[in-house]
Amino acid sequence: MKGDTPEIAAEALKTGRLVMLPTETVYGLAADASNPQAVARIFEAKGRPRFNPLIAHVANALDAEAVAVFDERARALAEAFWPGPLTIVAPARDRERVCDLARAGLDSVAVRVPGHPRARAVIAAFGGAVVAPSANRSGRPSPTTFDDALEETGHAVGAAVDGGPCAVGVESTVVSVLDGRVALLRPGSVTREEIEAVVGPLAEEGGQGHRSPGRLALHYAPDAPVRIEAEAAKDGEILLGFGPGVGDPRWSLSPAGDLREAAANLFRLLREADRAKPAGIAVSPIPHKGLGEAINDRLRRAAGFVG
Q1: Using CA atoms, how far apart are residues 12 and 21, in angstroms rounded to an integer?
Q2: What is the pLDDT averaged over residues 233-241?
Q3: What's the rounded Cα separation, in Å, for the pair 226 and 286?
Q4: Strand 55-57 vs strand 108-112: parallel, antiparallel, or unpaired?
Q5: CA 170, 67, 184, 73 torsion-angle sign
């Protein structure tokens, strides 16, 4: 399928249809955030639990403050990292712009300005907030290429925008700025250390409003069982290596041991390995510092671990 223009995608959104949306993190399945019927189509297409809130994507920081109440720390984070892969959870300002179903009934709303120019072009042409969870079926690895997104949920969309391979490869970092504190709800490519450099030490997450997408116990999972922190592959397994000389270079997350390269390759290689129908997928140890926190978070959930 040839990709549609941002203008065609915006028209599809205005009529309540779903759109395949490229972002710098992963491909999203987008709908008008203010339209409960359109948002419900996302949950149906993904098979996603409705208690899981969605992220509202907007074209700029001014539009973000039309849907959320930002304090000085939220504005500092937006200024430091937007457009880009950071989502801010803050008190909801306008509950019509992001409907109750999209917010999972919470008084808070998750919002970000995506870094991908084609995503912002679609949102600007649409003229409102767009919810866009990853375009995978719920629990599956997120798609980071146009073809993988179409394979997962392309049957459900009225338009699809091709933005090329996703540069980041893991979903956005999510922080909440609520109740007088800032908490890291989901690690991503904007690291804990980078956030703390802007707002100071982070609080422990907690409280009903401090909820983030992508936190199910089994998530991002291929059909084949995933084994993490593996030193070598067992019989019938494919090893996703990390670092010089580890495993088959064709299956290496990063031969150079680069965490950003590993993140960009993670979901693509999980999906490609799964298509080979191995007995299992083993993954080499990944450092836990910086972006490694996000990579290990996704791998633990792919393997069915939450600790």
Answers
A1: 12
A2: 97
A3: 14
A4: parallel
A5: positive
Instruction: Give the C-alpha separation, 75 to 73, whole Å.
Output: 5
86-112 mean pLDDT: 95
pLDDT in tens, 67-82: 999 999 999 999 999 9
- Supply 146's token pair: 């146009």
Q: What is the CA radius of gyration of the chain?
A: 18
Would the pLDDT of 218 be above 90?
no
Say whether the peptide bond before residue 83 is cis (omega within 30 degrees of 0).
yes
**In residues, how long is the chain?**
307
In whole angstroms, what is the distance from residue 156 CA to residue 19 CA?
8
Side-chain-side CA neighbours of 69 within 13 Å: the count stands at 10
- Alpha carbons 64 and 67: distance in angstroms, whole number: 6
Beta pairing, strands 18-21 & 157-160: parallel
Q: Are 281 and 222 within 8 A, CB to CB?
A: yes
Closest Cα partner for 98 from 33, 176, 153? 33
Name the phi and psi angles at 196, rounded to 5: -65, -25
